[in-house]
Amino acid sequence: MSVLRPLDKQPGLNTATILLVGTEDALLQQLADSMLKEDCASELRVHLARSLPLPSSVDRPRIDLIVFVVNLHSKYSLRNVEESLRHVDATFFLGKAAFLATGASPSLSKACRS
Questions:
Q1: Which helix (H) or strand (E) holds 70?
Q2: Where in the cell (predicted)?
């Protein structure tokens, strides 16, 4: 069982690698496509994973940010993220990890804005 650590590999010059973790492939792909469309001075790489741990690979790039995508309507989605968290070193949570909640109802979104 491999644990992702933020400083396992040397950073690439002018590159950032983001790992999106979630159960909804179409949503992850849409998010990745939107990120890649943005104009950026550096090279952005986005990798998708349904869950962690990632397969052991010598060629895997350094991960600069992990985004855990949770569907609020799916218990499986939440369990998947909980299980994946076991494979992430605690130091990732010092500015190198984020949680994105999807599936909120419009009424909940309005309540949060006010």
A1: strand 65-71
A2: Chromosome, Centromere; Nucleus
